[in-house]
Batch of 2 targets.
Target 1
Amino acid sequence: MNRVQNIIEHAEQHCKEHGARLTNKRKHVLSGLLASEIALSAYELTEYCKTEFDEAIPAMSVYRILEFLEEEHLVHKLKLANKYVACAHITCDHDHGVQQFLICNECQRVKEISIDKSTIKKLQRNVEDAGFHLLSPQLEMNCLCERCMVSAA
Amino acid sequence: MNRVQNIIEHAEQHCKEHGARLTNKRKHVLSGLLASEIALSAYELTEYCKTEFDEAIPAMSVYRILEFLEEEHLVHKLKLANKYVACAHITCDHDHGVQQFLICNECQRVKEISIDKSTIKKLQRNVEDAGFHLLSPQLEMNCLCERCMVSAA
DNA sequence: ATTGATATGTTATATCATAACATTTCTTGC
DNA sequence: GCAAGAAATGTTATGATATAACATATCAAT
């Protein structure tokens, strides 16, 4: 079984555990994100399903499916890019805390990392000192990935 | 002279110093942002100019004006909100380093803060360790402002 | 006053996203 | 198996943000 299928199985199991249904269309959208190295838009995902599975899922449905997948913590929405990525930890059974997203401005490649707790704490304190409350330390950062750094040089 | 006019004067001086022109329309757009407590979209700014100055600046022009104001470091674009804010440091003559933006998810109020250098350094190291390069530590963070925290409680 | 540069206007269109309502598919109790 | 309700998906329309391409107007310097 290949990597994507394996993750899909995990995801399906995860959904079943609380009575959610990972339908075929939802699987297809998720597998589009899993197969992609870069973040994708809802419209790009309809394209993917069309070419890969010959299945015409309208954009409206893709948005709903993405919403479902987000609620299941299988997908993250990147507000900075208005695009979506699969969660990098679907097959981890342990809780994996809050993630940060490094988004390559050139190629949309995304890396999901964990910034150490103390740094996050300090950040949070800075924010509180300013009288604001950080809703979620799930930061998104404008970056360049390794490949694009090399090709830019 | 009121606060907004005072800042506009500073901005004009700043532009003049390197031969850039702060035209009336540019002033109007900038003053819209200066007068606002919250981040505004380009379309909201055309509205503002229409009602406040009875001047119909088409959205296309507002985008160009915002681009100009960004290049002059008079305005920041918030990618997280797809909106714009005036720089909080137009009247400071000293260099004020890299800023972070706290965006209230409820009311779009924005606070521009400076996170201490050591925290930024640590963040940057985390990113580099992941093989990415932080393009700019100008973070944007989803927050709740004081007022909205109170009214939510 | 002319000319070239800069700024702004106009029109069309791309892209991301949601609202409202209709239809299909699934599930569950009978 | 089937009826009824719930869940998922389809359809249509539209809103919001943004950019491209080209036309016109305004400014600045000679």
Target 2
Amino acid sequence: MTDINSRSDAARAVHGVPAAADAPVKDALSVEDGIDFAIIELFFFAYRDFTSDPDEILGELDFGRAHHRVVHFVNRMPGLTVAELLDVLQITKQSLARVLKQLIDSGYIMQVQGPRDRRQRELYPSARGRELALRLAAPQSRRIREALRQTGPEHRAAIETFLRAMVNTELRPQIDRLPGNLSAEP
Amino acid sequence: MTDINSRSDAARAVHGVPAAADAPVKDALSVEDGIDFAIIELFFFAYRDFTSDPDEILGELDFGRAHHRVVHFVNRMPGLTVAELLDVLQITKQSLARVLKQLIDSGYIMQVQGPRDRRQRELYPSARGRELALRLAAPQSRRIREALRQTGPEHRAAIETFLRAMVNTELRPQIDRLPGNLSAEP
DNA sequence: AATTTATGTCAGTCATGTTGACTTAATTTA
DNA sequence: TAAATTAAGTCAACATGACTGACATAAATT
């Protein structure tokens, strides 16, 4: 085991660490510091467990979270183009390419040449892809249902409003365009 | 560009894809399928933007999200041991080792030999580490404050209850032990 | 006819997670 | 006290999913 209090010169250069070791801070950061730690941490733990349910199913199929996201949005917005999918996921096309190829090769997602613009590829789920999307969403939906039950279902609107307000303003129109959201079609 | 409707034999073997191409499913998955897509998607988008704020600060320091989590919990639970930190983060010690070493080398986190059990290493932030934790938490807290304002602050309790209920039951005691949460000290 | 756009692909890199094997020092147990 | 267990650290190899940059093809637009 190396010396318990040592520091490399390289780190000192990058971070400008003073040569003299300062004292360890022993008091905990707390709400008194003006930061909403309760919700910050709840959000972290909640999201971690929220994603763990589908992860198990995905593991069996040798898929990852990236596959989940693609399957999800293709099922929610069938016929969307590759460019539109990239826009929703906010990743690069090189990043999408691998998982999309795997999903197409294994028959979960199908491509159809764009009817107006034949350069485009419209993405659709196959029956198998539809089934997978439902299977992945089911445990998440169950978790939400149970959490809402514990909270009191009358608070549903407030929770939706809060989560929507947590999203960057410029992305909210995109969310509202998803099917089955109150604000969608007339 | 390769044939738009082709499928490898390998994929067919693993996933048991039928030889005949089935038809693309053209209707969108929707609330009518009995799944709470609204909250599933809001949670996804909200968490993505929630983590993007600190990501920018971390990028400047050549740190990542893993560093953020370590800095956060060491500041919230100063003096916790390596084993306790692993328990909170739910990662392996080899995974933690890299980022923890970097944080110690660059003077954000300090180790103190356990007073009772000298095998243990208690982790504390330095003044610099405390400062970083606050700097990373600030934009997240601001986002939450603004979202709560839009929702109506009277719904705060419901939102906390909901998020807490989204966490796996067995982890809730751990959350409640964090400082400044109503249910903590008397 | 030239340019732009939509998609796909190759190659390399990085961050962060994993498993497995092993060491050292300290504590606990038999 | 000797043996076993525990806390922490380390080495090596690997997987996933992100990134950048460069380039190819076909189709649409200018």
